């Protein structure tokens, strides 16, 4: 009886650890995606600013 309880407790602990690991991986993926979007926005803004600067130079 005690062995079955210990086995069940170990199964539950393992399940909780697996869920925590998956949640952590999902969080990391979300943060990486957010960082990538920020980098893309930064590059886009830099390109737009550079393009506008070039247009202004052409007008002068």
List its salient traits.
60 residues, mainly alpha, 1 helix, rod-shaped
What is the element layout, followed by pairings?
Layout: H1 2-59
Describe the structure.
This protein is an all-alpha fold and 60 residues long. It is built from one helix and no strands. The protein is rod-shaped and about 85 Å long. The termini are far apart.
Rg result: 26 Å
Distance between the termini: 89 Å
Strand content: under 5%
Helicity level, as a percent range? over 70%
Order of helices and strands: H
Tertiary shape:
rod-shaped
Instruction: Classify the secondary structure makeup into a structural class.
Output: mainly alpha
Main β sheet profile: none
Count of distinct strands: 0
Determine the number of helices (DSSP H or I, runs of at least 4 residues): 1
User: What number is the mean pLDDT?
Assistant: 89
Poorly predicted runs of 5 or more residues: none
Short note summarizing the structure:
This protein has one helix at about 1-60. The protein has about 60 residues and is mainly alpha-helical. About 95% of the residues lie in helices and about 0% in strands.
